[in-house]
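Exercise 7 asks you to align residues with tokens for two separate proteins.
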Amino acid sequence: MKKKTLALLVTASLGGSILAGCSGGDEAASSDGVTKIEFWAAPNPTQQVYWEEMANKFEEENDHIDIEVSPMKESPTSEASIQTAIAGKSAPTMSENINRGFAAQLAQSQALVPLNEIEGWDELVANRNMEDTIQTWKFSDDNQYVLPIYSNPMLFGWRIDILEEVGVTETPRTYSEVLEAAKKLKEKYPDKYVWAKPDLADPTAWKRWFDFFMLYDAASGGNNFIEGDNFVADDQAGVDVLTFMDDLRAEKGILTKEATDPFESGLGIFTDLGPWTFSYWEEKFPEMKFGETFDLALPPVPDSTDLENVNTFADTKGIVIYASATEEERAAALEFLNWVYENPDHDLEWLETTKLPPARDDLSENESFTTFFEENPELKPYAEAVPYAIPSIDNAKYNELQTHIGSHAVNPVVEGTVAPKEGWEAMKKAIEEELSR
């Protein structure tokens, strides 16, 4: 999901109306031996085209299932349209475009089917070679409510051309290396910054996915932040992250004022990048060349951290099956998904169509994708990081919880008004109070 869409996440309570909407009866889901299922694709033209093509090919080989593909409504948001459909007893059989936090809201209201309870689930996971990737999607009740379609391990971009100008020849991987690069940058270019990002001073919940959680997942080795209704974050890793931000601020390496294209212009030399960036750059910033102008790296980590298999945050979404679907519709939906994902060529077509990395453990090794990554080398680092990417927290209050991270910790620390440990403790207290309500 692109960030402007993330900003519109709906956090309204689903309450009893959704439960009523999910209490569908056992009406026959087929006529003339054909089971009809409705699939809502993400409101993205490339994804709709992909799923329509998959449905047509599937129906050519399987005349007992009819799949109707349509885009979910975006007004006011896709999440709101799903909530409205559930409450109005008009939910589809299944839909994509679901992140783990929103799924937690829906699962809490019993609006989703645990996919692991449908026959064929284990076969699907094995055939797609996603045993490792799927583990981080397990919910606190040990169920799997979402089949991840794509996993964008968020990486940091570095302006290696500017690093070389200031005498840094290796992309920084640890906090001390980043701070050393900051000192050299400010000595030569006092008006440049390491991290030029206004979002660091903004408490909006979704923005923490692209700064705090990237760094926290790396520093903690992928340790959970929330489990069920319990705060289980690694305190030392959290304080280390905030201390790193504070140290970078002290070196005058952070800019939180609004700036136009700070990374592309060279005002800042370090920023979070998703794979959707590069198509945009081809048109607007053709001078941005992988391996020449910029490099991609996993998040920097504390100096004592093992540099192998560093974790990061995964910007990722997947497919759910709604509880209002009949048993026949659920089985048909999983049969369709098994057909799609047992063939890696279908994931290749997805990758070519959307540029979003399929959620597979073998994405960087499977020969089906070799040619694609040879032609798109800037996307290979994302493929390599898929097994180590951590999805968003699975708590229905994720919006409130992540707002506390910004308002009590990240924002005041980068502004220099709160010490890292003080900010962490204030954030922790606010989150624990939120979870106890």
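Second protein for Exercise 7:
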Amino acid sequence: MPVRVTADDVAKAAGVSRAMVSRAFTPGASVAVRKREHVLRVAQALGYRPNLIARGLTGQRTGLVAVVAGEISRPYEAWLLEHIVRVLSANGYQPLLLPAFRDANMTEMIDHALAYQVEGAIVAAGSVSRDIADRCQASGAPLVLIGRVLEKNGADAVCCDNIKGMWQLVERLVKQGRRRIAWLGGTADTFSDQERRQGVEEALAHYGLSLQVQRRGDFSLSSGVSEGLALLDSRLALDAIMCANDAMALGVVEAAAQRGIKVPDDVAITGFDDVPGAAWGRCPLTTVRNPVNETALEALRLLETRVHNPTCDNQVIRVGVTLVPRSSA
């Protein structure tokens, strides 16, 4: 079994002190250029990599950023995670991924991340409590939420304009003459589901309409199929089904195909997020684009701002959304 190369091994081979090895791997440390290059060459030849956890224990920068993501088997979560990791890596950070499965204890996950001496945490999960924000702030680790806004003075956050997006979809449906509209929401405790349902109800009320029926899935494609079948079999003569995300909307499209119902002739179907798969399949999806790259960039900007100014006021960034009309509505 190979023996792990240590900083002492590098120091001995390079003919320098162990402290010099540490400085050579520390950005901004006072080391002559030739000396640093020499140490790094020796380290590379030996296969040495610095222990980031040990660096954190000595108070040095680790470059680690905890990324708490939702269930990454789902299209939007995987798509967002890809952009977060890409943005962090491009800016010299190493993401420490912590997947937040449905039954995960978010508080324990954040505590676990903080034990690694991370420089901050980006939480891309829809259900985060004030207690979690307080834990991060008490530890000195900045916390940035994606897709969730806590009440006043909760945490820095980036979130799309959910309500505006739903207004755009309702306006399109109403202009098409749709009047018997159903809502398929996601899990009840998620911020995006709450705001998107609010946007639908407000927009419909503006036009003197209301939802004919509401059902709830779990943001997955399979729940879109099962709940879509229930809606289509309900004898409510629905002419539109609005879904809280694209995965469920694609599931409803599949449910309509199973029942021989034409989309959009018999019923219009809309989603939200504009994940890559929304533009493909048997019926390209009318949806709202949730700009994930802009979201990832803003999250990193908020994180770095908090690192450099820990006492600054919390910021909430609302990124813009865009209606993407396609065949389904």
